[in-house]
Design a protein that fits this description.
CATH superfamily of the largest domain: Glutaredoxin
Number of helices: 11
Structural class: alpha/beta
Oligomer: single chain
Bound molecules: glutathione
Largest sheet: 5 strands, mixed
Number of domains: 2
Distance between the termini: 20 Å
């Protein structure tokens, strides 16, 4: 059985993992999850108790959640080193460091903005506090990431790796929430443009947009979410 990645839309961080699967080049399937309407139910909670995407159904039928765990699962299968480096090398350590920073502090900085976005009937003063705090946190993490970007073309070397795919699904939230002026961070802005120009990332964006891009042949099609949930009914 091919692994199945459950990715969320709209604007899910899991778009980066779709790009990683595509770049890895090994057979995989996808299941599309509408995060606004398909996660807050018992069937989905049986799959992932946190009711979040991404979720990976591995090739031996296990459920694996958490972006970092899925990225490491991919790394372990990347013998051709298309999206990673040989474990134990300086480059691999740097890639892990960047994945860690992006998936924790950088991603978490957006939490108050998502909270405000999802709140219905909140007091304007509550929304104001969340938005002010969120924008400051996003600006802080943008400045820190800007300082961490080195001279290489991508986050951890001169080619796209799991560090870049972890970043790209999240970085666009800056515009979504109008959190910061992205051009005030020129290294990050240029990096994002390079990542977004990669074939695998363009493929993942098209998939998220509901298109059917040709891809490189590794993608074996969508599995309906209902079918995946059915498998984990008990
Ligand atoms: N720690 C998790 C966080 C995953 C996460 O926050 N997913 C978001 C989408 S990007 C989600 O499902 N949000 C929906 C919700 O919390 O209601 C990971 O890194 O995989």
């Amino acid at each position: 059985m091919e692994p199945i990645l459950l990715y969320g839309f709209p604007s899910g961080s899991s778009m980066g993992l779709v790009a990683a699967f595509e770049r890895l080049g090994q057979p995989y399937r996808l299941a599309r999850v509408d995060m606004l309407s398909e996660m807050k139910n018992e069937a989905y909670a049986r799959l992932n108790g946190r009711q979040e995407t991404p979720v990976l159904i591995t090739d031996d039928g296990r459920v694996l959640t958490e972006t970092m765990a899925i990225a490491l699962w991919l790394e372990a299968r990347d013998a051709a080193r298309r999206i990673s480096f040989v474990p134990g090398t300086t480059e691999a350590d740097r890639m892990h460091q960047m994945i860690g920073f992006v998936n924790t502090g950088f991603t978490a900085a957006f939490s108050p903005l998502w909270a405000a976005f999802e709140m219905e009937d909140a007091e304007p003063s509550t929304l104001d506090v969340l938005r002010t705090y969120g924008r400051a946190a996003v600006a802080d993490r943008h400045a820190k990431l800007e300082a961490m970007i080195g001279e290489s073309a991508f986050l951890a070397g001169d080619r796209l790796t799991l560090a870049d795919t972890t970043l790209i699904g999240v970085a666009r939230w800056a515009e979504f929430h109008r959190a910061v002026d992205v051009d005030a961070y020129p290294r990050l802005a240029a990096l994002r443009r390079r990542i977004e120009a990669e074939d695998a990332v363009r493929f993942a964006q098209a998939i998220e947009d509901g298109e059917t891009p040709p891809g490189n042949g590794a993608f074996r099609g969508h599995v309906p979410l209902k079918e995946v949930l059915e498998r984990f009914r008990e």
